[in-house]
Design brief:
Number of domains: 2
CATH class of the largest domain: Mainly Alpha
CATH superfamily of the largest domain: MetI-like
Number of helices: 10
Number of strands: 0
Oligomer: single chain
Structural class: mainly alpha
Strand content: under 5%
CATH topology of the largest domain: MetI-like fold
Distance between the termini: 10 Å
Largest sheet: none
Order of helices and strands: HHHHHHHHHH
């Protein structure tokens, strides 16, 4: 009973929010160019289904390319930073400082370097999503128990063996947790770049819709972004549950 409730609770909450949203717009007679209702958004989606889906596909694959680069760079950099206390102390503050730079301020620079198109979108998705991956991998390696390392060294294990055979498997829950955060950030980065410097994609479509005061169409784009981000989040959650079950023993009792 509890398991079924947990499964359908998000859907029930979503339906409740949509009903409340529709009721507020209808009761107060809010104009659609100010705050569209769910029915108006659905109508706009049906009317412009083809361009919306085409734009969504463009945003999706650009995000995946940037996110794929972020995984490779994030894992490698995280391994380097987390494998040595000296590297952790030297690089971690610099990465925090870089991550604090607003990515919206970087997009115009990327446009100068790479021009208008998919280039800024890929790079912004990468820049905004690699940090959580790097930090989680580095933290997982850096917090390896000293007692465990001492025991393994007594048994003849070298530093490389400890990092690759113990440290990396131990980092897997951290890694999947970072992927679930990073993928949502990657979509944010792509849409941000498309709104600023793109000639296609959901961001560009939303920018055009907003300039024409077609808010239902802009909201339809937001819905598509949310659906894609949630789908990828659930995809990584599924992989996590089936590859790191040992780290979620408590969840198996529910």
């Amino acid at each position: 009973m509890t398991k079924n409730f947990e499964r359908f609770a998000p859907l029930a909450v979503l339906i409740l929010i949509l009903l409340l949203w529709q009721a507020i717009v209808s009761i107060f007679n809010i104009a659609e160019f100010i705050f569209p209702s769910p029915l108006q958004i659905a109508k706009e989606f049906v009317e412009f289904k083809e361009p919306l889906l085409k734009a969504a596909w463009q945003t999706f694959w650009v995000t995946m390319v940037g996110f794929g680069i972020a995984i490779v760079v994030g894992v490698l950099l995280g391994f380097i930073v987390g494998s040595s206390p000296m590297a952790y102390a030297a690089f971690y503050p610099l990465m925090v400082g870089f991550n604090a730079v607003p990515k919206a301020a970087i997009v115009p620079i990327l446009v100068v370097w790479f021009g208008i198109g998919i280039g800024p979108g890929i790079l912004t998705a990468f820049l905004i999503s690699f940090f959580p991956i790097t930090v989680n991998i580095a933290t997982g390696l850096a917090t390896l128990e000293p007692e465990l390392e001492d025991v393994l060294r007594v048994l003849g294990a070298k530093r490389w063996d400890i990092l690759t055979k113990i440290g990396l498997p131990r980092c897997m829950p951290y890694f999947y947790g970072s992927l679930k955060v990073a993928i949502t950030l990657a979509f944010v980065g792509t849409v941000l770049a498309e709104m600023t410097a793109g000639d296609s994609g959901i961001g560009s479509l939303m920018q055009t819709a907003g300039s024409q005061q077609r808010l239902p169409l802009a909201f339809a784009g937001l819905v598509l972004i949310s659906v894609m981000a949630m789908a990828m989040y659930e995809f990584f959650s599924y992989i996590e549950k089936h590859t790191t079950a040992w780290a979620h023993r408590g969840s198996q009792n529910h």
